[in-house]
């Protein structure tokens, strides 16, 4: 009885082993060729955060196959070949990503990519404060303070606006990133705003709320050790749309807050894979990302671009390009199926033509949210490039 059980366990083990090899091979193929339907979306999602592990596991799989006594030699050879492709293809993708990071002055620590998702104990939890209300509900800020500042002077302020398609996410998103910047000497303030839904369309609510939060920060940052004269905005995806629109409209004097107060000067804005053109987002016909794109834009605006062209124009960042807007860092993913990188390049050209300083760093084989796994190459690039950009424009400890 024991022998049949052992044989079945061995067969199941080999099946799982070979399944892992096939998955890693397909992931590498999708990352190398993101134009492939479906696979081109899934591959980058796996390779960007887990690339180093894929290389290690693929090489370990080859070693195990070569060391074992395989009854089906052709199958074993095929699996070894696929594992070799997974290791080599993934290594090529990671080498391209590292090359882009180094070309932009960011060093990548490969050892950190093996320790993904590890959240170290925070030196201090964020402080919650209320900056306003909406329909009787409080609107809050999560404030991350540095342990100390050089010479005891006020710290620069980094304002974070979360993504989530305008209908998801919370002010506690990207908590490891916010603590990372706080530990470097920034006062980080993460802004809560009213989310959209099928029955609640916040296209004309969210931006004025961000403006209110900025007015509150301008008046109260000093209480938390912050210097509102050195302030920058950071937001990804839909949050990127909000920080770009708010900062550009503020520079043009066209930002209407729903609360009293003076808006602080925005020295710089950073937007990884931002929503830039809502109509083009709605028109996305990708098999996987397209339906999500249409639901997000409809929930936010209340309808389609044909029905509400003015609303779509109002929330699209090119509408607000004007001389005097703050220096801008864009970080699109070059395998982003939700927000194709061509839109970011188009926006950058128009903004530069208007006299705005724009820096664009495209991340090879980067799907949407390519930097969300702490420790990944994408995360290290976004953190490092953001820090350099902020320091260059005077927002530094």
TrEMBL record:
Q: Which residues form the BD-FAE-like domain?
A: 142-349
Transmembrane spans? 15-36, 42-63, 75-93
**What's the short name of a Pfam family annotated to this entry?**
BD-FAE
Keyword terms of this UniProt record: Hydrolase, Membrane, Transmembrane, Transmembrane helix
Q: Which GO terms describe its molecular function?
A: hydrolase activity
**Record's PANTHER family?**
AB HYDROLASE SUPERFAMILY PROTEIN C4A8.06C (PTHR48081)
Q: This chain belongs to which protein, by name?
A: Alpha/beta hydrolase
What species is given as this protein's source? Alterirhizorhabdus solaris
Q: Write the lineage as a comma-separated list.
A: Bacteria, Pseudomonadati, Pseudomonadota, Alphaproteobacteria, Sphingomonadales
